[in-house]
Design brief:
Helix content: 25-40%
Largest sheet: 6 strands, parallel
Low-confidence stretches: none
CATH architecture of the largest domain: 3-Layer(aba) Sandwich
Shape: globular
CATH superfamily of the largest domain: Methylthiotransferase, N-terminal domain
CATH topology of the largest domain: Rossmann fold
Strand content: 15-25%
Mean pLDDT: 94
Number of domains: 4
Distance between the termini: 51 Å
Number of strands: 19
Radius of gyration: 22 Å
Bound molecules: 5'-deoxyadenosine, iron/sulfur cluster
CATH class of the largest domain: Alpha Beta
């Protein structure tokens, strides 16, 4: 195998993390990365299947590659990730440009599968039902030198009725704490100052390990003890499993950031029950309140789905009420997308799509105003930022993130390297970012 590869990633942080491993494996084989399809000998897609539009985008791109392949028969196309895990051989049948299909559980096999495909006239499809190695143990080509993702668990044991993830990523499997800590130590030795612990449902971490231990709170304490790691983040906890121990550990561990992504999904108890979320709106707000009481200056984000089957205007109003009460710093908002194979996909869904889009717009308008007012509260304050590098839009500015994960743009003082921790005085706020000046 030789030449250049193009790697496109769709979806969540878990996929971004897997893509770093895919790139690491290919770099180790001597391939070079490119951003131009015309220059690529190998095009890889790391795919997502959480909503239908992700499927459509992928199949659209694969369709366009067919013409490129007709021009350059040597071009190899590989598809991995969640959609590949879900569709397997069907994917190769539906998209004739595809040479290799691999799943979420067998990334390590990719180089061998590419070798097999080179000697084969038919597509090579290999999907594993179980993970042999945690992706974190494979070589990585990280995008940023100072920050890294660390997998703590894969899979999900919940059964949210809208969600395809359990069917695709399988049962929850926790990684041994000693391995997680060892990886963080290795990353710190390599100059990493911030780690994000990744799991589909981080606070059920450890339940499948011997003695059902350690708890996620214990794990936070262990990683907090790793010299050189200055910020720990994690994503995502499930509201029903957010334990007081976790809040206490977050408050106590200096390196654990005051940031919580707590997906609520909906504000109507009827819809939450139909979603199988395991909490009511009141219970969610109680949990949120305890977290805010225990952790000073907590930044909170959430996920919300609009238009779940059977959601009425009154149900939607309950979501708006919850959003008003919760005062989230930010929210990822989605229009419900039926995923074949899930329980919710079988439910009656009489609400017209225009109605759902209107609800979506009302929700984002409300959350946009709340995000802006939450950010305005920071104007005039000094915040610690971890500098990421020059701003993409304006290279005379640097971009950093607060401990709460908010973006801050500051003028570049010419001697602040990516990965530096600096103090910024916040001078302005928009709904998605802050502006400021470097101080101190
Ligand atoms: N339709 C819309 N949004 C979904 N999510 C998961 N499944 C669906 C679906 N079928 C959203 C949830 C989840 C986030 C990662 O994606 O809000 O928290
Ligand atoms: Fe999907 Fe629910 Fe598991 Fe999250 S907790 S991955 S939404 S089933």
């Amino acid at each position: 195998m030789s030449g250049r590869y193009l790697l496109r990633t769709f979806g969540c942080q878990m996929n971004e993390h897997d893509s770093e491993r895919i790139a690491g494996l290919l770099d180790a084989r001597g391939l070079e990365r490119t951003d131009a399809v015309e220059d690529a000998d190998l095009v890889l897609f790391n795919t997502c299947c959480i909503r239908e539009n992700a499927d459509q985008r992928l199949y659209g791109q694969l369709g366009r590659l067919r013409a490129e392949k007709a021009r350059r028969p040597g071009l190899t196309v590989a598809v991995g990730g969640c959609l590949a895990q879900k569709d397997g051989a069907d994917l190769a049948a539906r998209a004739p440009a595809v040479d290799v299909v691999f799943g979420t559980h067998n990334l390590a096999r990719l180089p061998d599968l590419l070798d097999t495909a080179a000697a084969s006239d038919t597509p090579v499809v290999e999907i594993a039902a179980e993970t042999a190695t945690f992706p974190s143990t494979l070589p990585a080509a990280r995008d940023k030198a100072h920050t890294a993702w660390v997998t703590i668990a894969i899979g999900c044991d919940n059964s949210c009725t809208f969600c395809i993830v359990p069917a695709v990523r399988g049962r929850e499997v926790s990684r041994r704490a000693a391995d997680i800590v060892a990886e963080c130590e290795m990353l710190a030795a390599d100059g990493v100052v911030e780690v994000t612990l990744l799991g589909q449902n981080v606070n059920s971490y450890g339940r499948d390990l011997d003695g059902r231990r350690p708890l996620f709170a214990d794990l936070l304490r262990s990683v907090d003890g790793v010299a050189g790691i200055q910020r720990i983040r994690f994503t995502s906890p499930h509201p029903k499993d957010l334990r007081p121990e976790t809040v206490a550990a977050m408050a106590e561990c200096e390196t654990v950031c005051e940031q919580l992504h707590l997906p609520v999904q909906a504000g109507s108890d009827r819809v939450l029950a139909a979603m199988h979320r395991g909490y009511t709106a009141a219970r969610y707000l109680e949990r949120l309140e305890s977290a805010r009481a225990g952790i000073q200056d907590l930044t909170v984000s959430t996920d919300i789905i609009v238009g779940f089957p059977g959601e009425t205007e009154a149900d939607f109003q309950a979501t708006l009420d919850l959003v008003e009460a919760a005062q989230f710093d930010s929210a990822f908002t989605f229009v419900y997308s039926p995923r074949p194979g899930t329980v919710a996909a079988e439910l009656d869904d009489p609400t017209p799509v225009e109605e759902k889009e209107d609800r979506y717009r009302r929700l984002t308008d409300l959350q946009g105003a709340i995000s802006w007012s939450r950010n305005l509260e920071l104007v005039g304050r000094d915040v610690e930022i971890l500098v990421e590098g020059p701003s993409k839009k304006d290279t005379s500015r640097l971009t950093g993130r607060t401990r709460g994960g908010k973006l801050v743009h500051v003028p570049d003082d010419g001697n602040t390297a990516p990965g530096s921790l600096r103090t910024a005085r916040v001078t302005g706020a928009a709904s998605h970012y802050l502006t400021g000046e470097l101080a101190g």
